[in-house]
Amino acid sequence: MKKIGILGGISLASTIHYYKTITDLYYEKYHDYYYPEILINSLNFQYFTDLENQRKTEEYQSYILEGLENLKKAGADFVIMAANSPHSVLDNIIDEIPLPIISIVESVAKEAKQKGLKKVLLTGILYTMQGDFYQKGFSKYDIDVVVPNDDEKQVIENIIFGELVINKVSNKSRQQFLDIINRYDVDGVILGCTELPQLIGQQDTNKLLLNSLRIHCQTTLDCALDDK
């Protein structure tokens, strides 16, 4: 099996759920404990978020590359970034990344294409919803990506940073989020923040949910086990 390198800490909750989901998916398939080895480099979440919010792109990219290099030094065979937002600069740094990397955007886009989706709503942190990296990634598969309006974006941002990143979930926030996604005539909804699956699951809505964390974890596990 290949050794997985996870660039984590962005956030605490996301990293925990990545580790748990990868190992849970393995057990669901094999019912044994020969889990793939996993290395985690946990970044400074506040520093990382400050670089995002202040649009310090050069420092942001350097910090990501430093973390990925650390995973290579530790012995990872390939890497993933356990968040959606750092994929905004993936195209800029892809040639400098020291190991093969699995993109969350590409993984989710392939899943959406397989399900026959044509138009999806992107939800996530402000940085992700204000960017265009999901739109670019999905355009290769002829899938349109739309985003909530500015007020709705702020509601989602507040839910994520006020609650989900510290593993807090409230019924009020769940209903607010459901009210937002139900306003849009789309084939599916991208949970484009890896904390959002804590808030709602498929059982909560008739909208088809694309759980970016679970999809990314499944692609990661498949890569780790491709010679098992």
UniProtKB/TrEMBL annotation:
Domain of life: Bacteria
Keywords: Isomerase
Pfam families: Asp_Glu_race
Molecular-function GO term, any one: amino-acid racemase activity
EC nos: 5.1.1.-
Recorded family membership: Belongs to the aspartate/glutamate racemases family.
Name of the protein described by the UniProt record: Amino acid racemase
